[in-house]
Amino acid sequence: MHFHTLSPPQQIVTTMKWIYEGGMTTSTGGNISLKEPGGDIWVTPSGMDKGIVGADDIVHLDPDAKVISEGNPSSELPSHYCIYRERPDIGAVIHAHPPGLITFSIAGEIPDTNIISRMREVCGNVGFAPYRIPGSEALGRSIAGQFARGHQAVVMENHGVAVGGKDLDEAYRRFELLEACCQTIIHANRIGNWRGLSIEEIEKRRLQTRSMPSGDHTPDHSEQLDLRSAVTEIAKRVCRQRLMTSSGGCLSVRTGVESCWITPENINKRLLEPEELVLLRQGQSEKGKVPDRLATLHQQIYLQHPGVRTVITARPPCLSALGITGRTLDTRTIPESYVFLRDIPLVSCSRELNDPEEAGRLSGMISYETPMLLIRNELLLVTGRTLQEAFDRLEIAEFGARSAIDALVMGGANPLHETQLRGLEKFIS
Prior knowledge:
By secondary structure, the protein is of the alpha+beta class. The chain has helices at residues 8-21, 77-86, 99-107, 117-123, 137-148, 168-191, 199-205, 225-240, 295-304, 317-325, 335-341, 356-363, 387-407, 418-428, and strands at residues 31-35, 41-43, 59-61, 92-96, 127-129, 153-156, 160-165, 250-256, 259-262, 278-281, 284-285, 310-314, 346-347, 372-375, 379-384.
């Protein structure tokens, strides 16, 4: 289901549900607006529980801010109108209080989106608006002034964040990724020194728009429907658990010696349907569809490793924090981690991950004993013999990274000793 096929009220309700259920705002905090091409505005109502708001509750206003439906618009509406006046290219605004961005807000700091090239690409430089009374014209002017400088997102001092986009889909993707950026930096600060990427490094790593050759194969929608349905359900679970953002990360599953199903480029994975997956066959993309930009990396892994059936690339915040601090995850902490994950090497890259030579180099590091790679300042690469195994590894690895970071305030983790590991090896062999 395409997000843009939903009506404006449905888009707002769907987005607010994702934000609220993802723990990125409170039931009474935050608001969303959407501007139609003709200038009409749709906005969340004032004071209503975000967990139960419905499409009929969304307030409709004309370009002059006159309410033409029932209900009272959000008290923050002046800020939305100020942003729209200052930036006609913006078609949607999200204001919310996600915990990571609130941390930066009350600390009076701006998140460094240079920690990962994808975050820089989507979020750019973030603005900062000094505190003003909520709902006031002064606050609106303060925020809009930052948007006027070209920022797509603005941290509001001791308040929250405002994020814009050409439409609500883009605004949400940016909002979600910016919160992930903040969470990553917060976790990294608990570990120790971290480093971002230079502009030169970001340019070298930026994923190019490589047009994969289009083949003439157009599979029937019923082809391997169970398998494709399983992929889309895992994609939605990964997003719900915030192991991957709706616009970042990629899932694929092998279907043959030289073929796989892969998630498409620029489609929100929370709404992904089986027929939207892209079939790659013998280095060619399914006719009329665009695969994820990491398709070459996924294909290289399948070509080099016949036993791999699934590949997931994602940027979960705790593992990403290890990646920007140059630390590895010690999997020898609990039996589940050691059995499922084995070693997760921390590796570096100096060019875009989809470059054929770089994709081949990274793929060569994968083995039965090393099913995962943590690529510094980039992402986590997970392989599995089944879709479920790959998902389990992603989930267990992020939980393990979170526990390892939390353990730092307890004096650090105590790994299993060699005798215990040898006993474990005998048990699972």
